[in-house]
Amino acid sequence: MALSKSMAEIKKELASLRKTIRYHNNRYYNLDDPEISDYEYDQLMLRLKKIEAEYPELITKTSPTQMVGGVAKREAGVLVKHDVPMLSLQDVFSREEVASFVSDMNATLDDPEFVVEEKIDGLSMALRYENGELVRAITRGDGIVQGEDVTKNARVISNVVETLKDKLPYFEIRGEVYMTREAFERANERQELLGLKKFANPRNCAAGTLRQLDSRITKERGLSLFVFNLQKSVGKEFATHTEAYEFMKAQGITVIHNYRVCHSEDEVWDAIQRIGDSRGGLPYDIDGAVIKINRLSDREKLGATAKVPRWAIAYKYPPEEKETVIRNIELSVGRTGRITPTAVFDPVRLCGTSVERATLHNQDFIDSLDIRIGDTVRVFKSGEIIPKIRAVAKEKRPSNTKPFLIGDTCPVCGSKAVKDADSADTKCTNPNCPAQIENHILNFVSRDAMDIKGFGEASIASLIEKGYVHTIADIYGLCQYRDKLIEDGIIGKEKNTDKLLAAIEKSKENEPSRLLTGFGILGIGKSASRELMNQFHSIDALASSSVEEIESVRDIGEVSANAIYDFFAQPKTKELIEELKSFGVNMAAQENNVIDDTFAGKTFVITGTLPHLSRDEASDLITKHGGKVTGSVSKKTDYLLAGEKAGSKLTKAESLGIKIIDEDELQEMLKK
Asked: Which of 294, 302, 391, 396 meets the CB 3.0–4.6 Å disulfide criterion with 113?
């Protein structure tokens, strides 16, 4: 008998929903790169659950409603079996559903206690301790069978406790790895400085960072951990969840903040509302409130389904949107020169706080929504924290509005601003722009550029604040203020100050390719600078070249050639170069810098610690014999020169079938 049309349509919708949800599950759990908001995802799941509730005979074992989390990824670490399943929680979206949960618990249990706490937006991780020592850290993975071993990375998270005061035979806890918004901003700023793609949100960044193969990167990004559950304890018994929390706190373990024990529906709802009202003041993102049973014996009695525990639910706060009118669009310049437009609008109250500003990101974002001064817009808080504009109410638009353009002029220094070819960002091209001088100096003194050891971010900031440094050329005039610098203690005492001044003096002898790297021209790093100096031999020759001449250099495209030409065409750049010359900074390459063409047309990447050569020495050796050294492995790489403790670059090179050599093989190639 043929299926009725309505049943066929139901099955078709089910198949479509499941396919869409699986796609977004993969983006969220495995790729750490979601394409839709939590709210949009929740709506898809609610629709799927509703259909399956009406037609339970159509539920399959592989339906997203029956699965937990994503899949464990081998490349992130060794796969480890779960001792205790790391289940997800049943989501609810209304007071009625919360009331129903409380009512069910009261009907099933004898005078139950409820704990209401923040639901941190991060990546779930379990920590296992044996005899008081941390032995394993595991991600949720599939939640049931296995997760990824991330122990090495967990050890560099600042508030992960490695040794317990009480040496229990076995103790397993579960927490959420997250990033504060401050740490997230620092990580994205660094991504931008390195020319890499920025992270979409703190949760994505935390998830990707925990799965890093290089724990130094994990440590650098500043992850944090909140523990929210006792998974298993051998050697000590606990009666309640909160008793376990008190024990953990005594061990130095960071547990969820501001949890409340409740006994009635009203108390539970009041606790949920209090957490909701506090969201705007938290330094981290939350995506809801968790309501869980306190007594562990009650939890054991209730048990769990294949996907969720029956003793807990997660309340998701509804997205709040309000209309307001844009009164102005302000432009600001960041440390990297990026010009950011910000909408200033009539204050509205969202998620318990007053909001009157929202970033507009870049010109592409402004154009996509056609945002104008005077427009009525709908504002919401992404992740219940960050104000964003969702749409323009064009039917309410005044007749005299005009499209908004960021323009091609820096709002701080008045220099030319250009759109970045690799992103939608508009950036100031002036190396002496006051808004970005700190970043320019950091780049100028870095190892890949002038390599002036002894400069730290704090001392650079102080030198700028005290008026010693306004441009990168001022670095070479610091020797005039030696005694004053020592007196002020900006760099340190006499010994440290003299060491830095000596390093500055020595840097004047550097090859001009380092100076060119230090200028921080958009898209021109160490490798491109070497190629340019190999052809032009001096800063002056490059500065007087045409776009066509610059573009003729290997690996220099049209965008980079224009960026170089525009940089040297600026009057302020010409003043800077003359000032650097007056201090005796080298502008010309040594003759016969290239010895021969042994490695002509070959591209190398260097990783790890070599036995005899530093990375810079190895790089110079390769380039002097006609080769090219880049920072990342790609299909264009011919050789990976690998030393001890080679990391992710070695793994990628192996996967691409790139020839891997050591220092001895490099020297042997030169002999031949």
From this structure: 294
Distance CA 594, CA 413 (A): 40
Residue 92 bridge partners (DSSP): 315
pLDDT at 68: 55
Catalytic entry in 5, 19, 73, 119: 119
DSSP 588: B
The Cα–Cα gap between 669 and 672 comes to 5
Rounded CA separation 648/261 (Å): 46
What are the residues whose beta carbons fall under 8 Å from the beta carbon of 115, sequence distance 6 or more?
241, 242, 259, 260, 261, 262, 291, 292, 293, 294
- Examine the pLDDT at 3 and tell me if it is beyond 80: no
φ, ψ at 594 (rounded to 5°):
-90, 120
Q: Which residue has the higher pLDDT, 317 or 95?
A: 95
Distance CA(209)–CA(205), nearest Å, equals 6
Would strands 90-92 and 417-419 be described as parallel, antiparallel, or unpaired? unpaired
Helix extents (H) in 288-432: 296-302, 363-369
Mean pLDDT computed over 481-485: 90
- pLDDT at residue 593 in the model: 59
Q: With beta carbons less than 8 A apart as the criterion, state whether 378 and 388 touch.
A: no
Question: What does the buried/exposed string (b/e) look like for 562-601 if buried means 16 or more CB atoms within 10 Å of the residue's CB?
Answer: bbbbbbbebebbeebbebbeeeebbbebeeeeeeeeebee
Share of the chain above pLDDT 90, in %: 46
Percent share of the chain, pLDDT over 70: 93
**Helix or strand run (H / E) with residue 70:** none
Tokens representing 491 are 């760099």
**pTM, two decimal places:** 0.51
* 49 has catalytic annotation: no
What count of Cα atoms within 13 Å lies in the side-chain half-sphere of residue 534? 23
Alpha-carbon distance of 412 to 339, in angstroms, equals 10
